[in-house]
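Design a sequence for this backbone.
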């Protein structure tokens, strides 16, 4: 049987040999016959191309659903159930970075009071992903579904807004850490700039538009020397790329507020710590090293001045986040167009009582009942700033934000969690 190729480009020239002896009529007939044959072949070709294209797109979309960990009827049902509101006047919140430290605590607080919560997290390996998995299990137990995906995935975000009319987005997904920016600068641009824009695009196009509350950072104050830091102070001297991407985020969110009417609240967190915290942060890695008998490196500032941070306990931060969601006001846009001015706010969420890093170490030593092997070195040029100190009067006025946990109390709770989570408490009691 001749192949399709043989039929179209025959190798035997004789097949198309014209019989010159044929009459005119016959030639006219052949002419019509060959025209109609060509027409049929053309039709055949078009049909073939069309079926190839549709098969290709079927395979394409099929493989997306097969390879992606999201999509499908069951998945949509889980998203919808998780977003279900269980109190009058409640909200449905998309929490990005939900398997992160702050994301986990905020998600639980919202769910506990009856709000709908859907989490989104890419479970990257910036720090031990098993801790993120453990946080996820905790959230699952409380009926919170976590979508595994990236904020850079515009299709996923569009799908989520298609399935649920989120009233709020609590955007906590980010590349965190001040010093790691020197090792992997592009991860900061990817998450804190590109990812932020993708998320804002999805929020701006959603109908109704959600109000957005997101995590900026105390690091935006950079080399600012005026203390305590107030929201009106200059933030144009970042000391790290991390700080620069957070500052850029503040400007980017401003444009989405201005052009599209998105309600925006940016929260400048001050060195947040507590149970289920981030292993890359000093209080956490110091605890690990002290318990393992390893030395810890304590940085010291210029002229041998101790570094200080306005360490803020997670429960206080959660109250600030929830207060921000509650007072966010509405976005005003629809169909991607602004219909009126929408709120744009930035708040410091700190503790207002800075503590030096050596004091932090002493508190840990007391709680752990182990002496630290301190290695004191001059602060390298690594993006660190010498001190942070928040003025929180604006947050107090607008959000009712009032931190109540001092470092001593907060670290005691952290150490208790750490010992039980990592199983160090063999017969050891923590006071
Ligand atoms: O406030 C913030 O906005 C930032 O707070 C922390 O950044 P940082 O304050 O640098 O927190 P740590 O990394 O825990 O460092 C705390 C202090 O310990 C010092 N440190 C850190 C690590 C170390 O090995 N030794 C040491 O002395 C640092 O210089 C700093 O003064 C977070 O890591 C950032 O993601 C967050 O945005």
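Sequence:
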């Amino acid at each position: 049987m001749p192949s399709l190729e043989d039929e179209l480009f025959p190798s035997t020239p004789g097949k198309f040999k014209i019989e010159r002896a044929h009459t005119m009529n016959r030639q006219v007939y052949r002419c019509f016959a060959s025209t109609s044959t060509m027409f049929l072949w053309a039709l055949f070709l078009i049909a073939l191309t069309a079926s190839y294209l549709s098969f290709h797109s079927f395979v394409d979309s099929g493989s997306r659903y097969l390879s992606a960990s999201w999509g499908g009827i069951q998945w949509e049902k889980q998203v919808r159930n998780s977003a279900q509101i269980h109190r009058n006047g409640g909200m449905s919140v998309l929490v990005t970075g939900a398997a992160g430290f702050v994301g986990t605590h905020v998600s639980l607080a919202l769910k506990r009071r009856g709000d709908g919560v859907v989490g989104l997290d890419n479970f990257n390996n910036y720090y031990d992903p098993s801790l993120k998995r453990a946080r996820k299990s905790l959230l699952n137990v409380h009926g919170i579904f976590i979508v595994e995906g990236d904020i850079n995935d515009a299709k996923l975000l569009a799908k989520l807004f298609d399935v649920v009319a989120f009233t709020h987005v609590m955007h906590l997904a980010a590349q965190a850490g001040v010093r790691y920016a020197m090792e992997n600068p592009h991860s900061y641009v990817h998450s804190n700039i590109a990812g932020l824009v993708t998320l804002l695009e999805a929020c701006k196009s959603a109908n109704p538009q959600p109000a957005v509350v997101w995590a900026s950072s105390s690091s935006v104050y950079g080399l600012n020397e005026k203390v305590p830091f107030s929201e009106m102070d200059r933030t144009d001297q970042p000391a790290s790329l991390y700080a620069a991407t957070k500052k850029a985020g503040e400007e980017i969110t401003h444009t989405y507020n201005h052009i599209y009417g998105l309600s925006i609240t940016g929260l400048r967190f001050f060195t947040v710590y507590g149970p289920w915290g981030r292993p890359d942060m000093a209080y956490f890695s110091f605890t690990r090293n002290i318990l393992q008998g390893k030395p810890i490196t304590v940085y010291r500032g210029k002229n041998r001045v101790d570094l200080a941070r306005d360490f803020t306990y997670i429960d206080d931060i959660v109250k600030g986040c929830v207060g921000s969601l509650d007072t966010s006001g509405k976005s005003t846009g629809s169909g991607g167009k602004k219909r009126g001015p929408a709120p744009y706010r930035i708040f410091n969420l700190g503790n207002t009582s800075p503590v030096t890093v050596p004091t932090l170490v002493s508190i840990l030593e007391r709680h752990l009942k182990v002496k630290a092997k301190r290695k004191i070195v001059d602060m390298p040029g690594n993006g660190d700033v010498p001190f942070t100190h928040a003025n929180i009067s604006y947050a107090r006025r607008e959000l009712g934000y009032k931190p109540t946990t001092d470092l001593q109390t907060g670290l005691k709770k952290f150490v208790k969690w750490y010992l039980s989570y990592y199983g160090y408490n063999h017969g050891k009691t923590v006071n």
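The first strand starts at residue 92 and ends at 96.
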